[in-house]
Amino acid sequence: MKTVKMVCAGFGGQGILSMGQMVALMAMKKGFNTSWMPSYGPEMRGGTANCQVVIDEAEIASPIVSEGITLLLAMNQMALTKFQPKLEKGAWLIVNSALVDTKDVPSDVHILKADFNAIAQEVGNPKVQNMAALGTLAAHMDIFNKQDGLDIIEEKFGKKNPELTLLNQKAFEKAYDIS
Amino acid sequence: MTVVFKKTKGLTNKPLTYCPGCTHGIIHRLVAEVLEELNILDRSVLIASVGCSVMAYDFFNTDCIQAAHGRAPAVATGVKRVRPDSIVFTYQGDGDLASIGTGEIVQAAHRGENITVIFVNNAIYGMTGGQMAPTTLPGQITTTSPYGRDVKTQGEPIKMSELIATIPGTYYVERVMTADPVSVRKAKTAIKKAFQNQVDGKGFSMVEVLSSCNIGWGLSPVDSLKYIKESMAPYFPLGVYKDKGKAE
Amino acid sequence: MGKVLMKGNEAIAQAAISAGCEGFFGYPITPQNEVPEYMSKYLAKSGGVFVQAESELAAINMVYGAAAAGARVMTSSSSPGIALKQEGISYCAGAQLPVVIVSISRGGPGLGGILPSQGDYNQATRGGGNGDYRVIVLAPNGVQEATDMVRHAFKLADAYRIPVMVMADGIIGQMMEPVEIDTTPIPKAPNLWAATGQGKRAHTNMVNSMHLDPYELEDHNILLNNKYLEIAKNETDYEKYLCDDAEVLIVAYGTPSRIVKSAIKTLREEGIKAGLFRPKTLVPYPFEALHEASKSVKFVLVTELSMGQMIVDVKVAVNGLVPVHFYGRTGGVIFEPKEIVDAVKSHLGGK
What is the pLDDT of residue A11? Predict the structure, then answer.
């Protein structure tokens, strides 16, 4: 397989970091090598947040994704502006269409759009937009199926908060199905 | 023949290296006697500091750890936390405790560490040759205050007992002196209390002992004892500054 | 126990707990905060002691005290904090105390930055403490190796009665990777020398780094050095990757060595035979193995996240056999594989 070099970026508080962690966790459970690296420091106090996830069959050479991004999840415009120049040719771009305008994205990038805000509203809790994003992401990535996502949500939230688990799973499923 | 005085088991047979006339020897004896009388010699760990008492580890008949300058209360914290059954005490001078080690003593007190601190205040850096200490008296001549301590630029002498007593975590703080037989006996009572508190698990106890440095002060041993009483004690008033036991 | 996805700092803390760490003394500093946070949450549950010290200075001295009392102990910090610990590390080395120090390094000098850096190679390997001493320094390349090395550090500390530093960069501290932490108990030395109170012993114990008699201090330092020579003989460790047919040898340690591996793949795809030599122990440094590995190459390229510190040791190892070049980024900037590829090509082209 081709190495997945993913960047997830957005506002602090959008659940970007934990969503990235769940992708890495899913990859690990599927037997892949994986790494998750957050931006840290003053950056994490509000403003932007981003994390980098690498997935590979072989040993992960570099956990740092600074060039050749194969998959970018942009939850706001700033995130797209910041990382668009580092997308490799033929990369996939997943955007929150409620907040991101993609008219300047080069034509060699595949764009997947979904309104994560709307999905989260429909489900009834704006906080679950990150799980909607996870749904779109999982639908796009060959290595994951729907059940993988539902399972990981169950594992992450199940014991602590069964209600939130259901909401998260709903958001995930909605986004997965329309993608 | 009846024995009226016997060397305590708490001290080794090594001759003390202190200058003749210095009262470190008396304070050593008091601490050692207290450890013997409380029957805790075999549980005690001395944290020796840096200064004239740097070789205290040779003189006390207990397990000893030599600490870096000022850090004895942190070292004591490490020992006491992993070995709570040990009786851990620091023996520190004024340069060590009141200057370079102010952070460590304040924070150990603040955490309420169940340790005993013997603070020997002789208002000078004796070991390094008589330099000005934070506790040097106003006008006192030392090798780094050759014209006398100028409080305008060098500050007033720091009063550690008063300062430590204000910290909520401390259990017992008393200032005593070693100027005459009566004050020496009172000093022993205070030291005993400070160790008994630790045995009883009460918390942080410190005894400040006003002590002499006849060589550093340039006085005879007898005049030095007078200096403790007549010059130091008025500035550093003796007494109990904190005793949570009394309040209980 | 299977693999779990864990942040490096937390995995390091868990590895210490699994190694039987009895005491942790630390102070907050980015990017190592998850180590004390994890310890405060879990160490007491396994019977250990956690203390948040008032400073790094106090923390290392608490470690000194607890180790002197025979406990298996650790502290962790990052660059400016490690600088503050240097005094205490010297005392631990002088008093021959088994302690483990974790350094999650960031950019300097001064307050510097908080992003990953290798500017503390000299700090770790040369130390800032006074006197004739060495500490063992281990440098992991990822979360798994970091946990293995923390456990190994406790073993080495016990075996040689010496401070052992595990130096990882901020990437390892902050990154999550699948990890399986070994839970095999590590037997503890009896530490008959410890100062815990005389008890039933016939003699008192003393833990001390002071020897005023010059002949006594000389003997002591010779003993420390002999111990170090023994460590160099037994414990030197390194990894060689595609070195056998290499015409270009790249030397790197820590996480950047993985970036170099990625560059080597690219170089080989383009027909340039490059290999990696990665020291896993920075002290003792694998001088002989590196010397051997450099014999058949055109040149050596040292890559560091600094302005060049390890390069001094590499030059000692290569000893003039072939040219030694350098490529580095600093301040928290991390080089990309392409930069390494370009550096190799430029030196090849210059021939």
Answer: 87
Q: What is the DSSP string of C183-211?
A: ---------TT--S--TT-SS--EE----
Q: Please, which pLDDT band fits residue C268 given cuts at 50, 70 and 90?
A: very high
CB contact under 8 A, A38 and C142: no
Q: Choose the closest CB to C195 out of B42, B65, B74.
A: B65
Instruction: Give strand pairing partners of B118.
Output: B91, B207
Which CATH fold topology does C4-235 show? Rossmann fold (3.40.50)
Complex-level ipTM: 0.94
Q: Is residue B126 part of a domain?
A: yes
Measure the CA dihedral A94/A100/A105/A108, to 10°.
20
Q: Which of B204, B200, B222, B117 is nearest to B168 (CA)?
A: B204
Nearest residue on chain B to C75, alpha-carbon basis:
B78
* C110-124 average pLDDT score: 93
Mean pLDDT, residues B160-180 taken together: 98
User: Residue B246: which of B174, B188, B183 has the closest Cα?
Assistant: B174
Instruction: Tell me the nearest-neighbour CA distance from C67 into chain B, angstroms.
Output: 8
- The values of phi and psi at residue C58, to 5°, are -65, -40
Q: What whole-number distance in Å separates Cα of residue C168 and Cα of residue C138?
A: 8
| CATH number of residue B156's parent domain | 3.40.50.970
Integer Cα distance of A73 and A168 in angstroms:
18
- Spans of all domains in chain C: 4-235, 238-349
- Using a CB–CB cut-off of 8 Å, the residues of C that contact B are 22-23, 25, 49, 51, 53-55, 57-59, 61-71, 73, 87-88, 91, 95, 195-200, 204-210
User: Is position B166 within any domain?
Assistant: yes
pLDDT digit string (tens) for C198-215? 999 999 999 999 999 999
Tens of pLDDT, residue by residue over A41-80, are 555 455 678 999 999 998 898 888 888 999 999 999 999 9
* Domain interval for residue A84: 4-178
Rg (CA), chain A: 15
Which of A24, A38, A62 lies at the smallest CB-CB distance from C174? Answer: A38
Chains C and A touch (3+ CB pairs under 8 A): yes
- What CATH architecture does domain C238-349 belong to? 3-Layer(aba) Sandwich (3.40)
Domain limits for position B145: 24-247
What's the number of domains chain A is made of?
Answer: 1
Q: Which residues of A touch C114 (CB under 8 A)?
A: 40-42
Mean pLDDT of chain B: 96
Looking at the structure of chain B, the number of domains it has is 1
The residue count for chain B:
248
Q: Provide the CATH number for the domain around residue A75.
A: 3.40.920.10
